[in-house]
Specification:
InterPro entries: Aliphatic_acid_kin_short-chain, Aliphatic_acid_kinase_CS, ATPase_NBD, Butyrate_kin. Its EC number is 2.7.2.7. By secondary structure, the protein is an alpha/beta fold. It folds into 2 domains: 159 residues, Nucleotidyltransferase, domain 5, CATH 3.30.420; 194 residues, Nucleotidyltransferase, domain 5. Helix content is 39%, strand content 18%. Strands 3-2-1-4-6-5-12 form a 7-stranded mixed beta sheet, with helices on both faces. A 5-stranded mixed beta sheet has the order 9-8-7-10-11, sandwiched between helices. The longest helix has 24 residues. The protein is globular and about 55 Å long. The relative contact order is 0.15. The mean pLDDT is 94.
Length: 372
């Protein structure tokens, strides 16, 4: 095992998106190839379901790898984004038949291109005789019991967050402090088209706002939390439940208020005197402050750091706002951009080196209600 820890393992990672697939090859911590493989939107739309896209996506990915001179058989492992799975605790999971079946059909009820991640990784791994993994899938659920309770019998809080990037940001910050993620209490945010705000206690994401379920703050593409009574009025006015679900996941926030999901456009419009844009931007920042402080409360007020990741963390105005309004809670550090490919490779390396043991996906949700 000591020798394995010295190796620079070669890991190929695959992160499918709506009209493209991000592919990366890592040797140790170093990225030797990163490429975004674009897919023809018309071709994708002709498929009946997400999983039916598998042969087409595989063909385009293999072409890109060949052009880059990458030989899949030289890899030590393959990692795919883990969509379609039932709620699990965080970690690295080796792809097994149950995981593959759930990814194929979207067992969690959410149809998303990330379902193709485990399928693509498993297909390459089987051909090359190597393991395939998923790392901190989107349905990572480590909520503490109190975070699950609502005031309605049989209705529980669940969580859908940018778990992969949230945990990688936390791990990186801990390393920068010479500490372990498992020894820290952190409020970690991913601020992009969707915004995740989460509380991390000693290596577990114990609370967070469900960005698919209509919780938390408004984001460029998501409505955030809404008053239930107002939603009922909205439905009675002739809107459908399908419309409301889309407001939670893609057509709310800036899209509904301003007709754009581009935060840079919103900022520019606000600076040019657009009152609606200024109000929406300021409201988003206001809500971000509230959510960060709520997660600090979930940690009992003991917070080692507040971390900001994701594309909007490039905004100096946003980062300065959080420092000004939340800096009294804990130091604020920005990690602009996403580390999803790096996080996927790092999870595989930890297993290959023996630092972590791969977890077994059973398909059984981590929470199925309370007994009493």
């Amino acid at each position: 095992m000591a020798d394995s820890k010295k190796r620079d393992f070669r890991v190929l990672v695959i992160n499918p998106g709506s009209t493209s697939t991000k592919v990366g090859v890592f040797e140790g911590e170093r990225a030797v190839m990163e490429r975004t493989v674009d897919h023809d939107a018309a071709t994708l739309s002709a498929f009946g379901g997400v999983s039916e896209q598998l042969p087409y996506r595989m063909e385009t990915i293999m072409s890109a790898l060949a052009e880059a001179g990458v030989d899949p058989s030289a890899m030590d492992a393959f990692v795919g984004r883990g969509g379609g799975l039932m709620p699990v605790e965080g970690g690295t999971y080796e792809v097994n038949e149950t995981l593959l079946d759930h990814a194929r059909r979207g067992a969690n009820g959410v149809q998303h291109p990330a379902q193709l991640g485990p399928q693509l990784a498993a297909a390459l791994a089987a051909e090359c005789g190597k393991p395939a993994f998923v790392v901190n899938p989107p349905d990572t659920d480590e909520l503490c019991d109190l975070a699950r309770v609502t005031g309605v019998r049989g209705v529980y809080r669940h969580v859908h967050l940018h778990a992969l990037n949230l945990k990688e940001t936390a791990i990186r910050h801990a390393a920068s402090m010479g500490r372990r993620y498992e020894d820290l209490d952190l409020v970690v945010c991913h601020v992009g088209g969707g915004i995740s705000v989460s509380a991390h206690h000693l290596g577990r994401m114990v609370d967070g706002f469900d960005i698919v379920g209509g919780e938390g703050m408004m984001a460029p593409t998501r409505c955030g939390a809404l008053p239930v009574a107002e939603v009922l009025d909205y439905l009675e006015a002739g809107h459908t439940t399908a419309e409301v679900r889309r407001l939670c996941t893609g057509t709310g926030g800036f899209v509904d208020l301003l007709g754009t999901s581009d935060a840079r456009e919103v900022i520019a419009r606000a600076k040019a005197g657009d009152a609606a844009a200024a109000r929406a931007w300021d409201a988003m920042l206001y809500q971000l402050t509230k959510c960060v402080c709520a997660m600090a409360g979930a940690l009992g007020g003991h917070v080692d750091a507040i971390l900001l990741g994701g594309g909007m963390a490039h905004s100096a105005e946003l980062v300065d706002h959080v420092r000004r309004t939340c800096g009294w809670v804990a130091p604020v550090t920005a990690y602009p951009g996403e580390f999803e490919l790096e996080a996927m490779a790092a999870g595989a390396r930890r297993v290959l080196s023996g630092e972590e043991e791969a977890k077994v996906y059973t398909g059984v949700p981590v929470f199925r209600g309370f007994d009493d």
